[in-house]
Fold these 2 entries.
Entry 1:
Amino acid sequence: MKNVVFYFEVHQPRRLRTYRLNEIGRNHDYFWESKNKEIFQRAADRCYIPTTRLFIKKGIRASFSLSGTFIEQALEYRPEVIEVFKEYFSSGLGELIAETYYHSLASIWDRDEFKEQVREQERVLRDIFKIKPVTFRNTELIYSDTISDYVSSLGYRNILAEGTEQLISAHSPNFVYRSPSKLNLFLRNFRLSDDISFRFSNWGWNEYPLTADKYARWIDDSPGDLANLFMDYETFGEHQVAETGIFGFLERLPIELKERNIKMLTVNEAAEMFEKREVISIKELISWADTNRDTSPWLGNDMQKEAFSEMQKLRDNGNRSLWRHLQTSDIVYYMSTGTSPDQIVHEYFNPYKSPYYAFLSYMSILEDFRREYVKNST
Amino acid sequence: MKIGVIGWELPPAFSGGLGIHTINLFSIISKFAEVEVYIPKMSMLYPSYPFKVKLVPLTYNGMKGNYELQVPDFNQAVMEYNQKVVDAFDADGTSVIHCHDWITFNAGIELKERYGIPLVVTVHSTEIDRSGNFYPQKWIMDIEREGMRHADHIIAVSDYTRRLVIDTYGISPDKIATIHNGLGKHFYLLPPKNYDLSGNVLYFGRVTMQKGPKFFIEAAKKVADKIHDVRFIVAGTGEQVEELKFLARTLSIERNVIFTGFVGLSEAIRYYRTSDVFVLPAVSEPFGITVLEAMSSGTPAIISTTTGVGEALKNVLKTDFWDTDLIADYIIGTLKFRSLRSTLGAVGQIEAKRFTWEESALETMEVYSSL
């Protein structure tokens, strides 16, 4: 392959604090300000600022989605992060990709709600970065034909999805496909992506240590048009801390790619460059999360389903923005009880350390919200 | 290899978890080594056991009710027992002496000195735990400390207890292993639970300061103020029953609180299975096998942070034992949300079943072979 498409998810939720029963009706401040600030500052220092600067310096082309809740917190806690991203996009290296402002699950329960949240995100991208996106990436790569229909009707050209085991057994992830809704469909190459995001610092991996030279060679040796390398941006400096050598790898990679005439493309550049393969229909919901690659990390157990459905019941309310912040997918993700290998990943991200405390706090918050903002409630 | 075990009781008689521990652990170990278990001679025994049982007659030893040991003067009986075990002990070919709690430590020390056989002691509970850290008796702590000092290796039933042995008794961490207890066989066979609301909130254990039943009643009051028609079941016996009945009356919740008296195993399972949530607000609980029993019955558990088994559990709700506001919050949460009951219950049921006596026996054998 002579092309790679880097795409990075840049997202921080506004985490909810531990909220006790006796606060219902008395305290309407739900967010865990100190934790959110601490996590944001740490990620800014370790990842957002140094990695983006490195991208600018080394001329790394990539596509990014910056969730609305991420942008809000950046503006509040660390405006420098927005400045460095502005610099990156104005240099012409990157493509900015759309999603729902709240990084929510709206796509799987309500088309109108989904649309409004996408429009809100588009407004923010326009106001801050003066960019109108043409590519869409739904929350954690949650995807189905229905969702791609919604996205297509909102005027997008390209969409990203997970190249699940089942999909790639029939369709190599290394080509551009079409969705039934006529979007250009990009499938994540999970093997090559996870080599960096999960395995990079794994001493037990037989390819450890991963060098830029070796990685570029793997790409070069793979058949197809392009390698879709999609991952969390926090891979650089946060999940894989600086001590693992991840930044050295990143600095070296563009040189190794160039030596093999491998080009870095943004999603839309790739969409324009390659001939589209067959139409792929995906009826069931898929995602890039956990081992099942479905929506079970968010709606796998009874608590998550009850919490999700309670949130929906509060739709007619006097504080849409707050209600939508309560839809951020991370909130129900923290309630996951998963299967044991995934549980380790969940715990890594869970600020409460227990799915049950996350559930109890959320349900109390919803109750308070109902009393405070939903008309005709008792 | 022959193991000389100095015990105190064996099922069907039991006052706490010691007898259950002894029979479960040594039925397995006896498949790999010769085991001789010494206990005071008592009237209620099974016709045979998977290991050799050596009965030590005491001057007076009776039974209270069907299953509880009764001696007129407990401390005197302990002293007499320890002396008589030393006399009755068959040292020939014995490679390890394994003692259980302070009630057997003096004999262990004496036997080790007399025969030079290595001594292992298991700490199931300490005087600090049993007193609820409220006027612990110094002379008992002295015996505990002596036993721990003389032991070649100590087994603590949790890291919680291990830390206590290090910090309070000043024992070197190098010779203390943590080996968790296992779950009884009955509990592996229980099917998934029905999570319809029953309105029962269960405390099950000895009704004594150490286990924190008072905090259960205080939390019950806070729950009853918000939700009516909840039954708070105090299952078990102990010296605090009358005090707690009085407390329930004082708090005007006597109609909501049910004191069952002594509860046997099959009845206990019925209580676990018909309760929405199990609560153990123990002040200091070295392990807490009832937590695993409740969980393996499919029942959500609320436990104190000072309950040893909690250190190895993810699927429980944890609070400080004194934080009756939070205990009440958790009880209300489990009563209010079916999904919390079903998720916590079902995931917890699987988690509890990881605690097996086979694992405990294996780790105990490793201690023996390290000597």
Entry 2:
Amino acid sequence: MNPSSNYQKIFTEWMTEYERLLRHIITGFEAKPAIQDELFQEIALNIWRALPSFRQDSAVKTFVARIAHNILATHVAKAVKSVKADQDIDEISQDAELDQSQPTPYQSLDKQQRQTRLAKSIRQLKLEQQQVITLALEGMSYQEIADVLVITTNLVGVRLQRAKAALMKLMEAV
Amino acid sequence: MNKDESPLNEKGKVTLQTQSQAESLLDVTTLPKNSNIEPRDTSVLDEQWAEMTQDWQSQPTTKTDIAKLLKQTKQRTVWAKLSLAVDIIATLAILGVAIFMWMSGSQDKLTIIYLGISGVLSVVFVFYVIKIRLSAWKVNCGSPDKAIKHAIAAGQSSLSYIKLLKLSCFVICPFANWYVFTMAQQTEKPAVLGLVLTNAMFVTVWFITHKFYKKRVEELKRLKSSL
């Protein structure tokens, strides 16, 4: 197999496996669906370019998340004002698919409201708090978060503690 | 002497320059809790956090056509490389034609001068274009802080290119007017339409680049303030 078709195979596998992770992370940084799509494509492009430099010394999940966070950190830093714009998650996509088992209408509404509130609150956090909280919510360990953000695990602990406290306050205030 | 004023105490002091330096040295999570603040029940917090994690991970997402995404990604990479190749080939072609006309003893001195100067200016533009493109293609695998610094460097290159483009409008405009006017005289045709179109083009280019200039300056200001 030539390197190009090998990269295509790896890219397809990675994007299929981590699509949800990437979409979730993007939601924590940007509210507008059109910009979310642009960011997703930008991340995909950077993953494609970075493929030849990937070494097995880091996990694929960490590698993909790091590229995404680099793009998103730059995006947030560039467009501080627009990122704070909030939008209901139910406006994000009409054809969004839910892979959970069908809940009752009440449960569905309640969950959607909670998800809206959560995403909205995360977008109001400081950049460094947004970074740790989005990764922690994805179930990443301290070590994995440290690898993605290139900081110490101790600093991850400190930032996460503060981020959680700030998030709880925002969730109560929203 | 007061115990606190003892010079021995100075040795024990550590000066921390930044907040992150302090955070990495002190494990705040293990510091004793302030007795005045009533701590929340950790089990409630854990429960809340678990619920949040579940909500976050079950967020609805749009399904991407990965095959289409791969095709688009490859196309974007190819177009970016092709665009750079066209810039370089066009510059070499302009210089090549100017050198060929000059070496073959062409009598069209006006076109030789025009192509020669355009070719030299094009080399300068291509230099900046290569710099900007290479910077944009640089793989973003470092820390997010480095990514922002990288974006600042790329933004500064882009700003230099825009400044050059704006300045070149003033430099090339009189020269292009002279070329159009002289060509019109040589072919015995009215120069007005040619001059109007040439100047309208320069004014449009200047305003478009100025708009981008203002946008980039604003972006750079935000990027720098975020560090």
